Amino acid sequence: MIRNFIDLADAGPDGLRAMLADADSRKRMRAGWPKGKPDVDRPLDGHVLAMIFEKNSTRTRVSFDMAMRQLGGTTIVMDAGSMQLGRGESIADTARVLSRYVDAIMIRTDDHAKVEALAEFSTVPVINGLTDQSHPCQIMADMLTVMERRGNLEGSRWAWLGDGNNVLHSIIEAGSLLGFDVTAACPEGYDPDPAVVATAKERAGNHPFVLTRDAELAVTGADVVLTDTWVSMGQAHAEAKMAAMAPYQVTETLMAQANGDGLFLHCLPAHRGEEVVDAVIDGPRSAIWDEAENRLHAQKAVLLWCFGKI
Ligand code: CP
Ligand code: NVA
Predict the structure, then answer these.
(1) Is the confidence at residue 205, as pLDDT, over 90?
(2) Confidence (pTM)
(3) Domains, the chain
């Protein structure tokens, strides 16, 4: 059976834990090495990953490219606008053709159904590099960062402030799969998708997702405070939304309510002075550069899982 990584649930709790452990050990094993030097075992020697971008990217593009190099493989990076996909060739036909050339496909797109369609018609693994609905690769890196800093994930308390977006959806899913608590404070009208919340609630057991309008309540006692841009890719800038989000800006005052060793995370790119102030994102509790680096290490594990090597 082909292993696609479209959402975190595809791997299940055991798969996710195994990936996080592998990411951690590979990261340690190559500490201080030149970044382009392959890992000793070159587990993906000869393998090629095609990447399709229908939206901008810095981290996802470079970290997947470097991940494949470190695993002994190579990549082909394509902007959808320069592909026949951008002129109307179907996702299904694109999947059928690319499957004949490459060993796996990563796609960043808008509609989640496009990734599902790509997986349906592909005969090689498909990885979700962000859709309007979810961003599972990001949360693998976030979980790795929390594990590194805290030593464990289970039992931690995560607080999200701001827009109920794709990144939050994957955090909600992660909390329900791996047993950590997620509370989100979102302004009315910008809640996460009720279907994502309902699915998480069904499986969450002792760790149900909590939604509140109260930013202070959400961050009080939190081990991890997270936010993201108020205007995601593909969304129009709306003054009404910016005004609604203003009370959810991550400030030093709000961070002071978190646990003493509470971390600040942001998937980046950040809009400093909007969702977070400089004093927090550049402050002592911010782990954003480790988080960004961990995209590379976590995605190596995602790739290895897709190829059945984890
Ligand atoms: N966090 C993240 O996915 O960054 P990019 O948009 O730069 O890939
Ligand atoms: N929510 C953001 C995440 C960017 C990595 C977006 O979709 O634009």
Answers:
(1) no
(2) 0.98
(3) 8-134+295-306 (3.40.50.1370), 136-291 (3.40.50.1370)
